């Protein structure tokens, strides 16, 4: 049922609005729908009445996961660790391809060069250096911190987020230690 609006007239007591009985009938029908079987209450959530089947998602997920929209009306379980980042990779080799919202932990013992993607504004990665080799981020035509230079990561304990802002800054570092 579509929402029913109580007509209140043009001015107070002008006789153009809904009669009292009609108005309250509309209100009762509206509330009947809200509190009907299709309305989710806090009590229903606490009683697990709303589950995976009602949310049209497969499985129950695991501890630390959250539901994420696939953009087509379906939901999937995603990892909530890393503040919404989707996956973590410990790597000893050059990254290819880079994946938005991932966490990369570099444990390489030899020097590596990683070519950054040509990408859209808003893409970001989190990185942590835990190896003994130097990592160079090749800019791939984009600026890094406003400079047309590759970024050499030689602080072997650095952790930060790398965010593509575009424009005059290109890739920017957020929260470096």
For the largest sheet, list the strands in their spatial order.
3-4-6-9-10
Number of strands: 10
Instruction: Note the quaternary state here.
Output: single chain
Q: What general form does the structure show?
A: elongated
Q: Helices and strands: which structural class? A: alpha/beta
SSE order = HHEEEEEEEEEE
Q: What's the CATH class of the domain at 88-174, please?
A: Mainly Beta
With helices defined by DSSP (H or I, 4 residues minimum), what is the helix count?
2
Radius of gyration: 27 Å
How far apart lie the N and C ends?
56 Å
What is the CATH fold-level name of the domain at 88-174?
Jelly Rolls
Describe the secondary-structure layout.
Elements: H1 20-34, H2 42-46, E1 65-69, E2 75-79, E3 88-91, E4 103-106, E5 112-115, E6 124-129, E7 135-138, E8 151-153, E9 159-166, E10 170-174
Parallel strand pairs: 3-4, 4-6, 5-7
Antiparallel strand pairs: 1-2, 6-9, 7-8, 9-10
Features:
3-stranded mixed β-sheet; 27% strand; Jelly Rolls; 177 residues; elongated; alpha/beta
Report on this structure.
- The chain has 177 residues and is α/β, with parallel strands linked by helices.
- It has a domain at 88-174: Jelly Rolls (Sandwich).
- The chain is 11% helix and 27% strand.
- It is built from 2 helices and 10 strands; from the N terminus they run H-H-E-E-E-E-E-E-E-E-E-E.
- It has helices spanning 20-34, 42-46; strands spanning 65-69, 75-79, 88-91, 103-106, 112-115, 124-129, 135-138, 151-153, 159-166, 170-174.
- The strands form 3 sheets. It has a 5-stranded mixed sheet with strand order 3-4-6-9-10, with no helix packed on it. Strands 5-7-8 form a 3-stranded mixed sheet, with no helix packed on it. The chain has a two-stranded antiparallel sheet with strand order 1-2.
- Strand 1 and strand 2 (75-79) form a beta hairpin.
- The N and C termini lie far apart (56 Å).
